[in-house]
């Protein structure tokens, strides 16, 4: 007699389950670290392969990373060169990624292929980091999607995801200008609802919804993570060109916006002096708010905007590996 469910139809055959469910489906890491995405078999089928892939955000495709064939494994793409199987024991199919990069964040799939009952599990790699709003010297709402993506990369970051923006909002990000996100949507985070910032409704992530990636223009929300080097301040009354020279004399370069935010977030950089950055803006990081350091009650990176490059009025923030 065949098994049936309550509706009278045949019950699905559950089949064997070889992969153990992960204890944690979200794995946290930082840029530059070595991280492990766990995938363990409870029992192996007679013969099988393991295929690791990355689910690309906003795209209906998966990018292969590594495929095993017995004791051997072959890597694919730029991530495949930094990935290997852990093989801590004969049932271990975990993936180890060395030198984690910003673009490594996302969803991964471990798939067991045996030709009969293939199965898989999904894990999310989430980087600890900081989201920062960005606009060019020309003013707000200058970027289409592709220009916003490039601008974030030029500032040692990448376009933030919705999840990263939401996390930043829970940590205090309140910003009234809309910006592109990696998925192609346009949003802005509001903690204190006010009339000039979408009205006096509830706090939250306000959305403009999907926009035309080539035609529509907004700011960008960028994401960056921990640094391999360090940021330091050089005092003085420097022009932008003098700032570059000052950093070069110290074996460094003028810091990018993402460098400064990462140093503020991860190293607690606190400096009550405006300094040139590589994009021509002048900013300073405040960890401990005080009356004569920007006048705002919360920690953050303050901005003087984009002064004339010939204006000799500021020090500079340098970055050294």
As an assembly, this protein is: single chain
Q: Structural class, from helix and strand content?
A: alpha+beta
CATH homologous superfamily grouping of the largest domain: Immunoglobulins
The DSSP helix count reads: 5
Could you spell the SSE succession in H and E letters? EEEEEHEEEEEHEHEEEEEHEHEEEE
CATH class of the largest domain: Mainly Beta
Outline the low-pLDDT stretches: 1-14
- DSSP summary, beta strand count: 21
Estimate the mean pLDDT confidence. Answer: 91
CATH topology description of the largest domain: Immunoglobulin-like
Largest sheet: 6 strands, mixed
Rg of Cα set: 24 Å
**Distance between the terminal alpha carbons, to the nearest Å?**
70 Å
Q: How large is the share of residues in beta strands?
A: 25-35%
Percent in helix: 10-25%
Protein name: Hyaluronan and proteoglycan link protein 2
Domain Ig-like: 16-124
Subcellular location: Secreted, Extracellular space, Extracellular matrix
Disulfide bonds: 176-197, 272-293
């Amino acid at each position: 007699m065949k098994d049936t469910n309550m509706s009278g139809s045949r019950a699905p055959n559950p089949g064997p389950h070889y992969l153990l469910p992960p204890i944690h489906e979200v794995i946290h890491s930082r840029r530059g670290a070595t991280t492990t995405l766990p995938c363990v078999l409870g029992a192996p089928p007679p013969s099988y392969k393991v295929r690791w892939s990355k689910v690309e955000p906003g795209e209906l495709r998966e990018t292969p990373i590594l495929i095993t064939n017995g004791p051997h494994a072959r890597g694919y793409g730029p991530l495949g060169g930094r990935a290997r199987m852990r093989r801590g024991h004969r049932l271990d199919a975990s993936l180890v990624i060395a030198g984690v990069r910003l673009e490594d964040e996302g969803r991964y799939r471990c798939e067991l292929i045996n030709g009969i009952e293939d199965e898989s599990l999904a894990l999310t790699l989430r980087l600890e980091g900081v989201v920062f709003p960005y606009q060019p010297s020309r003013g707000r709402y200058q970027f289409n999607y592709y220009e916003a993506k490039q601008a974030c990369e030029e500032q040692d970051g990448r376009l933030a995801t919705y999840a990263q923006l939401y996390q930043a909002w829970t940590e205090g990000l309140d910003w009234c200008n809309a910006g592109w996100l990696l998925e192609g949507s346009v949003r802005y985070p509001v903690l204190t609802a006010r009339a000039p910032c979408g009205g006096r409704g509830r706090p939250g992530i306000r959305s403009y919804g999907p926009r035309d990636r080539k035609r529509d223009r907004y700011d960008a929300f960028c994401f960056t993570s921990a640094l391999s080097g360090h940021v330091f301040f050089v005092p003085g009354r420097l022009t932008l060109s003098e700032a570059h020279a000052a950093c070069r004399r110290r074996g460094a370069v003028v810091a990018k916006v993402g460098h400064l935010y990462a140093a503020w977030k991860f190293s607690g950089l606190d400096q009550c002096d405006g300094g040139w950055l590589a994009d021509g803006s002048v900013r300073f990081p405040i960890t401990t708010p005080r009356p004569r350091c920007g006048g705002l009650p919360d920690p953050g990176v303050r901005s003087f905007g984009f002064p004339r490059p010939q204006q000799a009025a500021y020090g500079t923030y340098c970055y050294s590996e």
